[in-house]
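Entry type: protein chain
Record version: 2
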Amino acid sequence: MQKEYRTKCKDMIMEYLQSHKEHRFSAVDIHAYLESKGQQVNPTTIYRNLEKLMLSGQLMKYKTAEDESAMYQYVEPHGKCQEHLHMQCKSCGRITHLECGFMKEIRAHLLEGHGFMLECTGSMLTGLCEKCRDAKL
């Protein structure tokens, strides 16, 4: 078994993830953050760290509908992002996890009524959160 090393780069990536728990981000966002902190890092190193975090279940990767670019979401605090849908505010970018009884209901309906088995990995519903919706009124 290969030993997992702690590096300054990895620690700073985790720092970024911890401070962006409710927002999606890209490798470019992390690279800009590291540079703003005076840390020069090869983008390949960032992608390698993101891949390891995905394999460990701490990150979820999905492609955006707009331009098919890879985006990431930190899932460590929720742990079961494969089991529920996600909602993202188009205005502020905040991600909300749909962790309620509705998920059982919608899964059952899709399977029984449509023969469709829902996979939530990478799911993202978009709209406006209550705060942003109220601000526009």
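Comment: The chain is about 40% helix and 15% strand.
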